[in-house]
Design brief:
Layout: E1 4-7, H1 13-26, H2 38-44, E2 51-54, E3 60-68, E4 78-85, H3 94-108, E5 113-118, H4 123-131, E6 135-146, E7 149-159
Parallel strand pairs: 4-5
Antiparallel strand pairs: 1-2, 2-3, 3-4, 5-7, 6-7
Length: 166
């Protein structure tokens, strides 16, 4: 699929939010039960390494962004990955292109470790991350509840071979 990757901006938010809500609706993408406002989302994510994938008609097909894992300076180079693909664009290589570009962007911005917490039932997302160089660290057992049901997450990480190696 021919796509263009651009920095994610407030102008993309309505489409990004709709794709996020599609993921929420699956029950296997996030513990979130509703998409936040642009202001809340913007405040929670790094200002760098935010991408949208646009299709031939400039429609948003997916997005990817990073969230800091901690405010402590020793973890400044560690971020959590979010990748969401519109239902109609899934299985067409959009996620692969977004995640590869996100890895590159993260390294250009001094990120040495990327991590992802993925529900084990979301096997396509686990495979996508592994194809991008993430390794399965383990499983976080009963890490949180979703609608009263305890859920596990698979913990994956990717360590940069160029940032933080000195």
């Amino acid at each position: 699929m021919n796509i263009r990757l651009l920095p994610l901006t407030a102008a993309h938010w309505p489409a990004v939010r709709a794709i996020y809500e599609q993921g929420i609706a699956t029950g296997n993408a996030t513990f979130q039960t509703e998409a936040p406002s642009w202001e809340a989302w913007d405040a929670a994510h790094h200002q760098h390494s935010r991408l949208v994938a646009l299709g031939a008609e400039d429609e948003v097909l997916g997005w990817a962004a990073l969230t800091p894992v901690s405010g402590r300076c020793v973890y400044a180079g560690v971020a959590e990955v979010s990748v969401y693909i519109a239902t109609a664009a899934q299985g067409k290589g959009v996620g692969r292109q977004l995640l590869q570009a996100l890895v590159t962007e993260s390294e250009h911005n001094g990120i040495w470790t990327l991590q992802a917490g993925i529900f084990p039932e979301n096997e396509p997302s686990i495979r996508l991350h592994q194809a991008a160089g993430f390794r399965l660290i383990g499983q976080r057992e009963r890490i949180g509840q979703m609608r009263g049901v305890w859920r596990n997450t698979a913990l994956l990480e990717r360590r940069s071979t160029t940032v933080g190696v000195e």
